[in-house]
Amino acid sequence: MNSVKVIISNDQKSVKIPTGIRLLIRRCCHAVLELENFADPAEVSVRFVDNSQIRELNKKYRNIDRETDVLSFPLGENGEYDINYDTNAKMLGDIVISMEKAFEQAELYNHPLQREIGFLTVHSMLHLLGYDHEVGGLEEVRMREKEETVLTRIGWKRDSSYYMGEA
């Protein structure tokens, strides 16, 4: 696989970005492209926002007036992507992560914030490559399997932290 350039920006002040998060995001993006045998150079933008910012984006682009954990804005369709002519890289799109929501979900599922950010990055990268769990059925199962495969490869295996037993 060729290189992937990941441009990361932090546009929120609600949650301190843990050490190593930028490297983790780059590893996640690379691992997804490797799993998908994506051989071309690629570019991805990842932006950290707070709940109010992601709510605005969710309302504007999906007509859903509530915060969410991550939004994906693919620049390609059916394997065709815009090209950055300076680098000849395929521009896959933008990932927007609510750090507030990621922190809440990490606490809810009782796992580290890094694990949650890794999951959200992998999830969103798969969306950028055309996967869509929202259609349900086999497509949802395939996407979930790929998420877990990538997370396992980078050292974040699924564990009992996902079990939501009775209190």
In brief:
This protein is an alpha/beta fold.
Return Rg in Å: 16 Å
Task: Please state roughly what percent of the residues sit in beta strands, choosing from under 5%, 5-15%, 15-25%, 25-35%, 35-45% or over 45%.
Answer: 15-25%
Mean pLDDT: 90
Which percent range fits the helix content? 40-55%
In whole angstroms, how far apart are the ends?
A: 46 Å
Order of helices and strands: EHEHEEEHHH
Low-confidence stretches: 160-167
Please state the structural category: alpha/beta
Q: What overall geometry do the principal axes of the alpha carbons give?
A: globular
For the sheet with most strands, the description reads: 5 strands, mixed
Q: How many DSSP E strands?
A: 5
Q: Enumerate how many helices there are, as a single number.
A: 5
Task: Record the SSE blueprint.
Blueprint: E1 4-10, H1 21-35, E2 42-49, H2 51-62, E3 70-74, E4 82-84, E5 89-98, H3 99-108, H4 113-128, H5 137-153
Parallel strand pairs: 1-2, 2-5
Antiparallel strand pairs: 3-5, 4-5
Write a structural description.
This protein is of the alpha/beta class and 167 residues long. It is built from five helices and five strands, in the order βαβαβββααα. The protein has helices at residues 21-35, 51-62, 99-108, 113-128, 137-153; strands at 4-10, 42-49, 70-74, 82-84, 89-98. Strands 1, 2, 3, 4 and 5 form a five-stranded mixed beta sheet that branches. Helix 1 (21-35) links the parallel strand 1 (4-10) and strand 2. The radius of gyration is 16 Å and the shape is globular. The protein starts with a strand and ends in a 14-residue tail after the last helix.
